[in-house]
Hints:
By secondary structure, the protein is α+β, with helices and mostly antiparallel strands. The chain has a single domain (6-321), classed as Alpha-Beta Plaits. The protein is 23% helix and 12% strand. It contains eleven helices and ten strands. The strands form four sheets. It has a four-stranded mixed sheet. The chain is globular.
Amino acid sequence: MSSRQLAMVMDLNKCIGCQTCTVACKTQWTNRNGREYMYWNNVETKPGDGYPKKWEALGGGFDATGALQDGVVPSKYSEYGVPWDYNQDQILQGAELQPGTDPTVGPNWDEDVGAGDFPNSYFFYLPRICNHCSNPGCLAACPRSAIFKRDQDGIVLVDLNRCEGYKLCIAGCPYKKIYFNPKLSKSEKCIFCFPRIEKGLPPACAQQCVGRIRFVGYLDDAEGQVAKLVNQYKVALPLHPEYGTQPNVYYVPPMTGPRKFDKHGKPIEGSDRIPLGYLESLFGKAVHDSLKTLHAELDKRKAGKPSELMELLIAYKHSDMFRLGTKAPEGFKLPVLK
């Protein structure tokens, strides 16, 4: 357990799926040297298979007794998808654009593919990075003790000098956010841009987010947006808390979208476009209280009454979303989640 925990909150009501965060991460960390298929940050369309494909069914994490569960290492060919080239040289001679291979899967393969029937179909975007868990499945699975949490901020890192490339960490992570570098024969993952954090800068994905959906701060900073969203208002929730890893990336769930329409094209009062049952499958039962709070505060704002929560989520000032230089409160101890 680290003495402090840096966390991120993402407001899914503001994510437009532009992939700017993905590009920011890709160009800074994972664009070469065996990392071509790595997406330490990716934005998935939900409901959808995600990246790697059907990662939610590949195991890992902990069971109700706290025991590490078996997991599967995704295949580079059937779950990740190998990057493919195009016949650029032939195009210069007038050929039609063709991929060099016959791709069947890859990042964003099912982008904007949702569920439901017209006119009541729906989808939303879900950005994902390593959750820098308080109880990491990857750390528990590694026989080499190559994975550790930094004491000063709880960031989870891989010691490449100790890693022997057994891939057990990949199997142990239920979010499948660790990747194997075939050139190095080592495991690599999101490092929460810790070189930027140490200079007081937010991670690249958060800095470049055009929708201002990402808040970064410490869970013990009571005046920070992250702590208020997670601990005070309790509207920001971890993804798949049943995995038992105690994630430190939190999500403000989508507010179920517009109303459904009946066969005459009229809105059905009290209906939810995004099924609450599906949101519960992602964020647990706490999603019901989260949505109630969000709707109540939004109604206050519509009525002209002040709402600190809505002010926080609007994020008028970009720099206020990142509180990285705060000191730990005296005597504060991180809670042990059960």
